[in-house]
């Protein structure tokens, strides 16, 4: 029997596709003269940003760009990068932001795999783009050069058009449309930092809209917020914050690269409210000479992901007037999808106790439907005992559509109706999840499981350690033993023997690193440690013994 409730119709009056494009339109209407983008001495209002995006989109249509065509960009955090997040989907196309720190071969793979039709290039990356394009000579890609006034190097050009001249010819009254279906693709982001070819992660308009709003709820973002772009916009579309700032009617402070001294200056000059990044960004700030550090007279919030913020970072940031929020997510979940939400009373605890609580990945993001720690064999929740290990899994609208042209990987990722993260975790009695390790990062030594994160936590307690990464090193007797790679803080010294002695005070004997290497640790552009490289280094060290 059909219910009268079910007979009520879905019409254009009561159902509209969700898309972050509406955030831009609203900001331009409500805050036309509010600064949308500040880049050096240049300032662009929301009205101007909307008009420029219309021009950009209309010019893409003039180039023959159609629905689901891919437009790639090789840009730092400059105005054109922010504009691309709106203009490309306004044209019905899919935005592909390329990691500027990748090699030409990988860039070429992405351009070819995505079937990119257009490529926007900053002068700093012209040589990289030229080499990548030379590897795919049979693919016709229209190149648009983006000359940036804040770039201090030589302006090299590769393409047929210069961005500012090109969009100036566009239509400020371009009639764009919302997607026919909010499930339509809005962006394509490639995974990085792993072996093999990267996978293309597809986002849809609905997920982008919801995670942008979820960011606002998660960090309590105020209207007309000021946001500093320390996080690369090519990483998960800047965790969707370009769309969040439009929803807030706020101001984007652009930053070509992370210079800790400049970060301090911009936060003070523009009264920045929010910024994001990996703990390495905060470490860079804290390692500035004291005379270049600033204690801000206004409140600043920072979201940190990639690794739990250690005690020294939480305390150091707080002394500067910056509150640290630990978030967790993956490329496949539009960036942050979980938050270690603070509870009343936490601030009354010692800094060490607070750091322990904040080291957890926490609970679902406000608009993420579900996050669970499940037994991957039974797909049942593990008990909230802080000991039983399972895998973090997500379900909801803020999960990717899937992997482009890779149905097998998509099916595996969504097995059992959940997105499998591959992150092993426990769930504490208060319901907060804490990662114990990536499944591939567990070290099995003499039949004992060793969490690399547990060893790293101890290493970070050493006063000279800036960055620590622990991986398995092959061993003839124990099969595997812990091998630690260490970066030291500027102006400090420590020997491998001293590091090992430090660990012996706090760890069971079999968990203590048997090999310590003091070196620069390879990282992705967002500060994520590239453990697959370290595993190769450890293997080489074992072979050379």
UniProtKB/TrEMBL annotation:
<dbReference type="InterPro" id="IPR042099">
    <property type="entry name" value="ANL_N_sf"/>
</dbReference>
<dbReference type="Pfam" id="PF13193">
    <property type="entry name" value="AMP-binding_C"/>
</dbReference>
<dbReference type="InterPro" id="IPR025110">
    <property type="entry name" value="AMP-bd_C"/>
</dbReference>
<dbReference type="GO" id="GO:0016874">
    <property type="term" value="F:ligase activity"/>
</dbReference>
<comment type="similarity">
    <text>Belongs to the ATP-dependent AMP-binding enzyme family.</text>
</comment>
<feature type="domain" description="AMP-binding enzyme C-terminal">
    <location>
        <begin position="454"/>
        <end position="528"/>
    </location>
</feature>
<protein>
    <submittedName>
        <fullName>Long-chain-fatty-acid--CoA ligase</fullName>
    </submittedName>
</protein>
<keyword id="KW-0443">Lipid metabolism</keyword>
<dbReference type="Pfam" id="PF00501">
    <property type="entry name" value="AMP-binding"/>
</dbReference>
<keyword id="KW-0436">Ligase</keyword>
<dbReference type="InterPro" id="IPR045851">
    <property type="entry name" value="AMP-bd_C_sf"/>
</dbReference>
<dbReference type="GO" id="GO:0006631">
    <property type="term" value="P:fatty acid metabolic process"/>
</dbReference>
<feature type="domain" description="AMP-dependent synthetase/ligase">
    <location>
        <begin position="24"/>
        <end position="404"/>
    </location>
</feature>
<dbReference type="InterPro" id="IPR020845">
    <property type="entry name" value="AMP-binding_CS"/>
</dbReference>
<dbReference type="InterPro" id="IPR000873">
    <property type="entry name" value="AMP-dep_synth/lig_dom"/>
</dbReference>
<keyword id="KW-0276">Fatty acid metabolism</keyword>
């Amino acid at each position: 029997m059909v219910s009268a409730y079910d007979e009520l119709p879905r019409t254009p009056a009561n159902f509209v596709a969700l898309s972050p494009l509406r955030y831009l339109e609203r900001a331009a209407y409500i805050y036309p003269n509010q600064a949308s983008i500040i880049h050096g001495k240049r300032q662009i209002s929301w009205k101007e940003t909307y008009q420029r995006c219309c021009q950009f989109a209309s010019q893409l249509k003039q180039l023959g760009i159609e629905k689901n065509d891919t437009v790639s960009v090789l840009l730092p955090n400059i105005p054109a990068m922010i504009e691309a997040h709106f203009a490309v989907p306004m044209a019905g196309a899919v935005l592909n932001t390329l990691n500027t720190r990748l090699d030409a071969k990988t860039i070429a793979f992405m351009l070819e795999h995505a079937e990119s039709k257009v490529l926007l290039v900053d002068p700093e990356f012209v040589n990289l783009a030229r080499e990548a394009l030379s590897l795919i000579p049979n693919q016709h890609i229209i190149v648009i050069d983006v000359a940036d006034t804040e770039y201090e190097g030589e302006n090299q050009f590769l393409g047929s058009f210069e961005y500012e001249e090109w969009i100036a010819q566009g239509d400020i009254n371009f009639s764009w449309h919302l997607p026919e279906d909010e499930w339509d693709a809005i962006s394509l982001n490639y995974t990085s930092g792993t072996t093999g070819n990267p996978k293309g992660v597809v986002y849809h308009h609905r997920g982008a809209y919801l995670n942008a709003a979820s960011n606002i709820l998660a960090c309590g973002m105020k209207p007309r917020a000021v946001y500093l772009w320390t996080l690369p916009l090519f990483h998960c579309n800047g965790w969707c914050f370009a769309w969040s700032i439009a929803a807030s009617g706020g101001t984007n402070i652009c930053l070509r690269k992370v210079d800790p001294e400049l970060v301090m200056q911009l936060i003070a000059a523009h009264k920045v409210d929010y910024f994001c990044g990996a703990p390495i960004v905060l470490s860079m700030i804290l390692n500035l000479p004291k005379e270049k550090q600033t204690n801000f007279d206004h409140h600043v919030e920072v979201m940190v992901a990639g690794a739990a913020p250690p005690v020294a970072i939480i305390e150091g940031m707080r002394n500067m007037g910056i509150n640290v929020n630990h978030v967790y997510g993956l490329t496949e979940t539009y960036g942050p999808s979980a938050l270690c939400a603070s509870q009343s009373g936490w601030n009354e605890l010692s800094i060490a106790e607070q750091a322990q609580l904040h080291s957890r990945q926490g609970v679902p993001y406000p608009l993420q439907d579900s996050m669970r720690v499940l037994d991957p064999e039974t797909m049942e929740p593990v008990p909230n005992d802080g000991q039983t290990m399972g895998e973090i899994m997500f379900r909801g609208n803020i999960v990717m559509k899937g992997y482009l042209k890779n149905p097998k990987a998509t099916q595996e990722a969504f097995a059992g109706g959940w997105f499998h993260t591959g992150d092993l975790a426990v769930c504490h009695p208060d319901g907060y999840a804490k990662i114990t390790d990536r499944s591939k990062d567990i070290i099995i030594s003499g039949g004992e499981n060793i969490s690399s994160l547990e060893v790293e936590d101890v290493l970070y307690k050493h006063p000279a350690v800036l960055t620590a990464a622990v991986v398995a090193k092959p061993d003839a007797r124990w099969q595997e033993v812990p091998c630690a790679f260490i970066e030291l803080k500027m102006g400090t010294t420590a020997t491998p023997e001293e590091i090992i002695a430090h660990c012996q005070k706090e760890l069971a004997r079999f968990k203590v690193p048997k090999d310590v290497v003091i070196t620069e640790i390879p990282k992705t552009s967002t500060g994520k440690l590239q453990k697959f490289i370290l595993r190769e280094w450890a293997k080489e060290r074992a072979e050379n013994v």
